[in-house]
Structure formats: structure tokens, C-alpha cells
Input
Amino acid sequence: MNFTDTGIVLDARAHGETHAVVDVFTERHGRWAGLVYGGQGRKMRPLLQPGNEVTVEWKGRGEDSLGHFALEMSHARAGEAMGERLSLAALSAACATALATLPEREPHSRAYTAMSVLLANLDDMDVWPALMARWELGLLAELGFGLTLDRCAATGARENLIYVSPRSACAVSAEAGEPYKDKMLPLPAFLRGASSEATLQEAVDALKTTGFFLETRILHLSDKQLPEARLRVVELLSAKL
Output
């Protein structure tokens, strides 16, 4: 079984003295791991940095085998982000989140496309925090845990939706949620499509909401928590408020 695809490097870990096992989020085949010969060498290490976009060729003896990758650089996203602390933190957070949540060898092309858009905009601080929240919202939907944000879970109202219920994952209006507002999660207008723009505060609020559901709906199934890199990026953004 062989395939060629495009992908985003998510992680590389040592295997033996000279090789590496690399996880790549591929466009048509999903998250896929493979052995890279010489992956710990000076020539290959820059290529295997998380966030880099690559062309991959995977070869294996069967669907269950680890197989091995031949990789070529398409876009050195990691190198571009190195010069800006927040951009690098966002890159690390996105890769760690994808690695932790995506099932192996299951195609999720829409999540891949959205992640590519996110990584392409990491040089624009006014854009990428909201893009990250939208990507995570879409990721939840792709994995079968979509949020219902177009009507109030309590009343059915479609106006003044400012909360998300942590129990039902549904929107709640300001009026219905008032008695329970201390327990509700924020629902910025841009996250439900009511606005095309977001302030930094709104983006941080949205990331707290999507992060809650990533952890409680997906990661808890394998007894995991949000990756440290994902927690860190919200801390850094919050410090700028």
C-alpha cells in the first residue's frame, strides 16, 4: 500500500539512534505516522519541525504497518514563525491540538483545509486568534461533537445568544442564561457567524469555549487534557488584553 499526499508535520520523535517517527496531518488520508530514515540527522531535522507543509510519499506492506515516509518541503511554516513569539506559540498549539484530537488514518479534509488557512495567517495578529477558534469549532463538528449555536437551548430564541451551555453544548440567550451566567461559557458573535470580525477579547473567549469542549468531549475519552501548548497560547493572548 502506497500513497502520495500533501500534509502538515505535527510531531517527530526519535526512533533508534538515527531515525524518527513522524506524525503528519495529510489532506486526503488524515493523521498518519511513518518512519523517516535519518530523521534525527542535521539535514532532516529542519524539515520535520511541526507546522511545516510537506509533500509526503508513504510506503508500507499493509494498512496496519508503520511504513515509512519520503518527505519534501512545500512551505517552511516553522521557520517563518520563529521570529515572533505569539506566532510560534499558535503554530505549536495548533499542531499539538491536531495531534491530540485527530484519530489515526481517518480523512478529515475540511479540518485540514481550515488548519492550512490558519497557519497561512499566523503573521497577522488581528486575524489568527479568531481563525484558531473557528478551526477548533469546525474540528469539533468534524469529529462528531458539533455545537448548536443558532438557537437558545432553553427557549428556542435566535436572538441575543451570548452563552453556551457546558452540559448541552447549545447556545443560550442572555435572558435564559442570566440565573446561571457564572456557569455558562461565552459565545462571541463571530463564533456563531453573526459577525465577520472579532476583538482579541472575543477571540480569547471563543478559544476558552472551544477548548472546554475539545477537552470534555474528545480528549477525556482517552484520559487526556488540553495540550500544554494549547493552554499556553491562551495565556499569552490573555496577557495582551
Observations:
- Residues 200-218 form the longest helix (19 residues).
- DSSP finds seven helices and eight strands in the chain.
